[in-house]
Amino acid sequence: MSKPKVLVACKTFSDIVDRLRPHFDVETNDTDQPWPQDELIRRLQGKAGVYISGSSKVDTTLLEACPDLRAVCTMAVGYNNIDVPACTARGVLVSNAPDVLTETTADFGFALMMATARRITESEHFLRRGEWKHWSVTMFAGADVHGATLGVLGMGRIGAAIARRGHLGFGMPVIYHNRSRLPADQEAPLGAQWVEKDELLQRADHLVIVVPYSPSAHHLIGERELAMMKPTATLTNIARGGVVDDAALAHALQAGTIAAAGLDVFEGEPVVHPALLECTNVVLTPHIASATVATRRAMSNLAVDNLIAVLTGGTPPTALNPEVLVK
Ligand code: GLV
Questions:
Q1: d(CA 324, CA 157)
Q2: Is the C-beta atom of 222 inside 6 A of ligand 1?
Q3: Which domains are delineated in the chain?
Q4: From CA 248, how far away is CA 275, in angstroms rounded?
Q5: How confident is the model at residue 126 (pLDDT cuts 50, 70, 90)?
Q6: Is the per-residue pLDDT at 38 higher than 80?
Q7: What is the mean pLDDT of residues 203-211?
Q8: Ligand 1, residues 10, 52, 101: which to mutate, most atoms within 8 A of Cβ?
Q9: What's the whole-model pTM score?
Q10: Alpha-carbon Rg of the chain, whole angstroms?
């Protein structure tokens, strides 16, 4: 009997792809660039499963064009690129890759927030341009992180890991906003206090955004919200492009409405709003919060574990719609 066919739609570690080969006929994308949607659909013909990253879109058009598809396994934790209800309606199992990236992503969020507050990339660019002629008392004077109020918007696993770093490592009072408040026994070790969103914006010295993207989170931070923040405050976004209105943010950075921003995600990435590129008081990174070798390997292995389980009759470890497996 021939093996089921699967597609690995983004380039990943070859030894991890090799784990699929005993079970499946495997086609891979070795180009390190996402395929255009029509090519993805063409390559998915006859495939039972697909391994994707956050760069591939799985929508109703794709699902209707690929009736053999039974499993969509993303190596990302975020899955706003996948129409999960449409997959469920067609009996397609979807999995993501939570937990394995939590601490790595929190490290990065904290580093980006610190780089933003302490103007690290801005001062490095100044030095590289040969503009450093003498030491000065106020040269690149930024904002303290230790002891400052940390505001966390979105208190999921990554938000909690950032709060823990701020509370235990930097003596920061931690305030947060989330749709649901954490139970008191989970708030206590983080030193975290739930507040309304407006109060979070008004009180935070360093705001870190970690909410998953959904249509209701679109432009959660826009002109109105930025205007509520302190002029000395920083904003760090490691969530998803679209949660912050990038045009409004660029304007706020230019106008001094807030002091600085750190951004790892962008609306319409990999294209970055040109006004942000013009701002000196913003640290920009290309969506790398989970990018350590160990964590990217763990994310890839988890996606492969899910793909193998779904298509060999096992239980996928991190299914988003396990109800499709119930006969
Ligand atoms: C990265 O953004 C992810 O969702 O894993």
A1: 26
A2: no
A3: 5-98+293-326 (3.40.50.720), 102-284 (3.40.50.720)
A4: 10
A5: very high
A6: yes
A7: 98
A8: 101
A9: 0.96
A10: 22
